[in-house]
Specification:
about 230 residues; alpha/beta; Metallo-beta-lactamase, Chain A; seven-stranded mixed beta sheet; globular
Length: about 230
């Protein structure tokens, strides 16, 4: 498995026989170099969207149309995009699982908000979510944008994720302290990758607090377009 950060909350996840883009925002993302776009989307099979905000959906429609691949996400937003944008979609909801090849994707709850803007007004985009992504003997918990939730204890009981992609930049989501609390309180991660940080001065710039708070966990500060290799468990 390879997990490749695209900056902010965007990831390319090469898992099993699939290549997933999670919340791809490249055009306008100050952390992403436009020259890397072709490599970032090469061979992509599916796009996962956690919620409707532009810093998570930014390039999803363009990639889906160009590559003729489906977008997976909350039913409301997917239905809107299917009707108004003409893209392939798989709309589902929290607690639902979609199997794509030998990878299973389960949508789980998040605590945030979700809309997009049209003609200067916010449009409801369905509820915000996270994902459990299972393949190669691993389960990744991709939080999307969220605060701590007691639900996380249930997520661990049901899914036992060993890899956490945790929003941790503060202001709009959990900060490093709250992400560390969540990881210690609710999960038994082997690997943690922070995201939704460093993008803007408003957000946290270092994951050192998270690293210090999780001494038994491999906390990896990702670098844009540098692959994090996770060995398959057989």
């Amino acid at each position: 498995m390879k997990i490749i950060w695209l900056g902010h909350s965007g990831f390319r996840i090469e898992i099993g026989n699939q290549i997933l883009l999670l919340d791809p925002w490249m055009d306008g993302n100050p952390m992403f170099d436009a020259s890397d776009r072709a490599a970032a989307i090469d061979g992509v099979t599916h796009i996962l969207i956690t919620h409707g905000h532009g810093d998570h959906t930014g390039d999803a429609l363009a990639i889906a149309k160009d590559r003729d691949i489906p977008i997976l996400g909350i039913y409301d937003l997917m239905s809107y995009w299917e009707e108004h944008e003409g893209v392939k979609v798989t709309g589902f909801n929290k607690g639902g699982t979609v199997s794509i090849g030998d990878v299973d994707v389960t949508m789980v709850n998040a605590a945030h908000s979700s809309c997009f803007w049209k003609d200067g007004a916010p449009i409801y985009a369905g509820a915000e979510s996270g994902y459990m992504i299972s393949g190669e003997g691993h389960t990744i918990y991709a939080t999307g944008d969220t605060d701590i939730m007691a639900d996380m204890a249930i997520f661990n009981d049901l899914h036992a994720p060993d890899i956490g992609i945790l929003c941790a930049g503060g202001h709009f989501t959990m900060d490093m302290k709250r992400a560390a609390y969540a990881a210690n309180k609710f999960f038994d991660f082997k690997t943690v990758i922070p995201c939704h940080y460093r993008t803007f001065p408003l957000l946290e710039q270092s994951a050192q607090l998270l690293i210090d708070a999780l001494p038994a966990v491999e906390v990896i500060e990702p670098q844009v377009m540098q692959a994090i290799q996770i060995d398959e468990i057989r």
